[in-house]
Design brief:
globular; eight-stranded antiparallel β-sheet; binds flavin mononucleotide
């Protein structure tokens, strides 16, 4: 099977990509509009790209909204609009116990609705940025916008991590204990995975 991406629709390519890059970590992004409405949404086009400086990247698509004349119009998702306006956001890690609420927060709520309220999550004050973190999350990374790369129907957002909150319950021997953190990953379609089979493989010494 060979797929020539130039022959396929973007939706078909999207469905294949979801199976090509697996499992994907989930950035549960809290942000805030200029009028201080809180926002929370998950993004699995996400990873860390550098430790010096500490840089994470997100792929945020657009959404279709009806304008005042009832015409469909393509606009940035609320998360992206907030990041452009405020240049700040927080990435919260999704543990298995928060999976349902993460999924609920992905609903297309109106911009004036806070997903914190809609999903019953608690905003906790951040240290170096204005948007709050999710109090229930065991790890949260406060970020400042480093660079935005505009694509025709999407955006790549690079964020510099300026502060990391780690629950003592998942901190063992000077590092994060993944077994305690219980992060979930996204697979293709509506499938997710848990981290419940871990093996060690030391790097070769050559
Ligand atoms: C697990 C999961 C991962 C998602 N990953 C992405 C993603 O990487 N990029 C994207 O644009 N939307 C992604 N979505 C969809 C957004 O979460 C959804 O469009 C959400 O309504 C955006 O909210 P906002 O308008 O408040 O920013 C994902 C949804 C789920 C459930």
């Amino acid at each position: 099977m060979i797929i020539d991406c130039t022959d396929e629709t973007s939706h078909d390519i999207y469905k294949v990509l979801l199976g090509c890059v697996v499992p994907r970590p989930i950035a549960w992004v809290s942000s805030q509009s200029l009028n201080e409405t809180l926002n929370l949404a998950p993004f699995s086009f996400f990873n860390v790209f550098s430790a010096e400086p500490p840089i994470v990247g997100l792929g945020i698509g657009m959404k279709t909204r009806k304008d005042s004349a009832g015409q469909p119009t393509v606009v940035p998702k609320d998360t992206l609009a907030n990041i452009i306006d405020t240049e700040q956001f927080v990435i919260n890690v999704v543990s298995f116990d928060l999976a349902d609420r993460m999924n609920s927060s992905s609903g297309e709520y109106e911009p004036g609705v806070s997903e914190f309220e809609a999903t019953g999550l608690t905003p906790a004050q951040s240290t170096k940025v204005k948007p709050p973190r999710v109090a229930e999350a065991k790890v949260s990374m406060e970020c400042k916008l480093f660079q935005r790369i505009e694509l025709p129907r999407s955006n790549i957002v690079l964020g510099e991590i300026v502060c990391i909150h780690i629950d003592d319950a998942v901190w063992h021997d000077d590092s994060i204990d993944v077994r305690s953190l219980q992060p979930i990953g996204r697979l293709s379609g509506s499938a997710y995975c848990k981290v419940d089979s871990i093996f060690d493989m030391p790097r070769p010494r050559v």
